[in-house]
Amino acid sequence: MNIKERGGKGEESAKSTRADKGESGTLTKVHIYGITRATSAHTKDGGSLDGEIVGIFRFPRTCGSTDSVRFSRVPLCPAVPAVLLPPATHCHSLIPRHLRTVSGSFQLWHTALSLCIMRPCPVPDDEAYGKDDNNRPGQLYFSNGLSFDYYDGGQEPSKLNEEQKRSALANVPSLLEVIGFSYFYGGFLVGPQFTLRSYQRLVKGELTDCPGQPPNSVIPAMKRFSLGLLCLVIYAIFSPHYPDSYYLTDEYDAQPFWYRCVFILLWAKVILYKYVSCWVIAEGVCILSGLGYNGLGQNGEHQWDACANMKVWTFETTPLFTGTIASFNINTNAWVARHVFKRLKFLGNKLLSQVTALAFLAIWHGTHSGYLLCFSMEFIIVNVERQAQALVRDSPLLTRLANSPLYPLIYLVQQFIHWLFMGYPLVPFCLFTYDKWLRVYSSIYFCGHIFFFTLYLGIPYLRKVLVPRKERSEKKED
């Protein structure tokens, strides 16, 4: 273990923690299937240590300890191989499949939440602590998806949809398969999400445009790499001019209202290039390996979009919030739809299923209030936009206006509103804590909340004015 003293009596205290001498320091150990690994160290004098964690799990400090230990952040290895699948191999006839799935998923969530809630507090002078610490959610997507696919493999085929049939696992995969799947270099840090069945097909050499030969994937992969590199250059050039920290300065507060709003718009546009560049480059890696091969298209051309996580052109040109969501982080959205939203059919309420799925995403990212506010705003914005689209579609006047020569001007107004209020929920997502995002929202007078709640309450009255009575009656009958 690589240990460095951060407090206490300095170097002498650090030496006291050496396990081979058995001196005053104590080591917390983790026992995983006969493997014992040292995970943290504490000194008697109250000093705090840094430790490089080895083993399958990264655990927080020992409960009840008064020491302040800060661990290096490393990707959380999936809990499923350590908790669910190996014992399932040996106890297959003793534990029902659904209990193994529930047990594994529960322990997975327990571990993840304990890491979020019990992890050591940040060092006060470390402003960057917690920034972009999203490797846990990415790893947990793989693990929880694997649990669901394993559960589906034990169901009657008639109970599964086509998507579930393609990903269902009839047998318990080996530990080597699970580790290879979870740590596949093309996706284990930032995605994209893919199923173990797809990974198994890749290993067998089935994902290729030339049967029996390596895929001709260099050119499609380089196209995505080049696009991702362009987005990365844009982010590298402009991000220093739009830092998150500027929101918390007196200079930002002193700017006029319109400037504060425009800054949010431009900041959101720039900050998202960070994610776009990572996902597009990672997609190129998946294409190069063959995992991105998606068979033949309608015109007989080979497709390489099986791991596409971004539709960059749609992302740049759509004036709709739903269009941006549909083109951004595609695989994760599909994962949530497949494993959360569609499995909530028993609720009998699509709106409730949507709320639950977004709450799942908020908790999945972490325990900060900013995540919950971001996804709750997404729910409000998306539903208001759908009501507005229905109003335009049902109103002859608004339909003619949308198809008139004035549409380019309307499009520019739409894009301004679109990107302004795309940035609005991103503020709490990136600032995390309520004291920070509340300061920013107060400086712009909660304009996003006022705008969308006003539309939500006003659209029903606009329908009475702009939609003919006949159209309204037909809508009610439908």
TrEMBL record:
Subcellular localization is given as: Endoplasmic reticulum membrane
GO biological process annotations for this chain's record?
lipid modification; phosphatidylcholine biosynthetic process
Instruction: Please tell me where this protein is predominantly located.
Output: endoplasmic reticulum
Q: Please list every transmembrane segment annotated in the UniProt record, as residue ranges.
A: 225-242, 257-276, 347-364, 409-434, 440-462
The EC number(s) given in the record are 2.3.1.23, 2.3.1.n6
In terms of domain of life, where is this protein from?
Answer: Eukaryota
The record's region (Disordered) falls at: 1-23
Pathways involved: Lipid metabolism; phospholipid metabolism; Phospholipid metabolism
Q: What protein name does the entry list?
A: Lysophospholipid acyltransferase 5
Homology family: Belongs to the membrane-bound acyltransferase family.
* Mode of membrane association: Multi-pass membrane protein
EC main group = transferase
Instruction: Give the molecular function GO annotations.
Output: 1-acylglycerophosphocholine O-acyltransferase activity; lysophospholipid acyltransferase activity
- Which terms in the GO cellular component ontology are assigned? endoplasmic reticulum membrane
Q: Which UniProt keywords apply?
A: Acyltransferase, Endoplasmic reticulum, Lipid biosynthesis, Lipid metabolism, Membrane, Phospholipid biosynthesis, Phospholipid metabolism, Transferase, Transmembrane, Transmembrane helix
